[in-house]
Please model this.
Amino acid sequence: MSQPDLPDPQQLRQSARALRNVLESEGIRDSRVLDAIENTPRHRFLPEGQEAAAWDNEAHAIGCGQTISQPYIVAVMTSALQLTPESHVLEIGTGSGYQAAVLSRLCHSVVSVECLPELHRRAQQVLADLGIRNVRCVQGDGWQGWPEEALYDAIIVTAAAPEIPPALPAQLKPGGRLVLPVGPTGGEAVQELLACTRRDEELITRILCQCRFVPLTGGDQSDR
Model:
């Protein structure tokens, strides 16, 4: 069986630089975030046959009804987390593993929760193949967060919920940040991307932009 052609390294570098230029033109200013995106091989997180589209500023389907987020949205969300090299981060919705890979370049550790077994296994394998050791992939219900390793400096949710999952704020450290899309889901529904900061027992919230995400699965959503 023939092996697929390996991407040309120079072409990959040029494509990554071109994407960085696009993100800068759209207002992304955090150089650490731009560096992380430029140096994370996005093509490794796309299904076979879609690699050529990896550096477009677009979301793409990855199977199981899920998507890999648009790089611009990845940049906005990651910037809003305000990570430091010491940050301990919770990601809800591993998906392809791409967002976790970007985070891994900016913080100390990431716990990434995925409820779909196929995506969990696939992302875990890609991250391992890339030698990323500070991301722990776990399978579970993202509505519940991951209390075993709380408290977190930052929590990012990469799927839309009609409300902030109630379990998440309590898993943030005081002053910690939560970034997530909130609003109606399904069809062409549009959500608001929120950046929240924990102040005592309150969340101080601001709207970053409008967005469109797949629904957050899991949880008892019969009354939502």
In short: The beta strands are 60-63, 66-68, 88-92, 109-114, 135-139, 152-157, 172-182, 191-199, 202-211. The chain has five helices and nine strands. Helices lie at 9-25, 31-39, 71-81, 98-104, 117-129.
